[in-house]
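Practice problem: predict the structure.
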Amino acid sequence: MPLQLDHDLKKRKINATDANKIKMGGLTDYLEISKTDGTPRLRGTGIVWRDMIMNLFGSKLESEAGKVTYDYDDNIIVFASGGSISTSADRVGGNQEINHEFKVGDSLTFKPHLHWFQVMTNETLVVDEDWTAPVVGLSVDLDFIPANGTVVVQDATDTTTYVEDTDYEVDYVTGAVTNLTLTPAATYHIDYGYIAGVGTTPAFIVTARYRVQRNGYEKVTNWTEITCEVGAGGDDIFDFTALYSGTYNQISAFDDIEIDCGISDTIQIQIARTDSESGDMSVTFFDLHGEIDSLGSEAEFTKAT
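Answer:
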């Protein structure tokens, strides 16, 4: 049965003291529902977060000689080093509307992020570790636990390479190598990589600049710059340094931005890679995390704060 009467709401410990609104929660943190039209609104810490996603792939329509290229197989933007945010050939950009469910008003915080493929080199390489083959069927541990698929076994002269799971077997959990067909008591050379917990990735720097175009106001021409130092720079959300070498899905954070905005206003973003490190940086998209306080707006072009 719908909750309609104020006295019934109070019995159920729901704040209904406002003549026009039902308030469920605490004094400052609550769900607010209009008694006249049923419109919900989130207040205080009752708000939740939502993404505004800005896809960069396909946003750079002109083909110019700069620091940005497409990878059409992976649907990504590839940034080379040495770019400048002030050079159009070195950057990509996008425009994002402030959707109607977002909290609007003055001095609102949005959290910009970059989604990209982070290449990690984590293994330390061991070359020509001496390994004396035990009796067929038995095993001897390596000095370190090898990373998956990195073990190569050769004879003592490094001329013959043996086949894993045919001539020998590796336990990648314990580091034990089991003799299947090799000559017992003979010495073999084993190469492999192991995780030393010191994985590295270059300290790429991404510079972004933004501005807000407010509907009904004069065009804004100035940009505000923010930076994100990925990899060794410390702005990554996930830590892959203790995992195997490979390519991982990373999110890296820019500094928070604080803006005044209303619904349907436009955030404009431009992005460039501005470090001098070697290697390419593969980016999937840029997004902004922002707080929402409603399912939408009461009116088509305005929203009460």
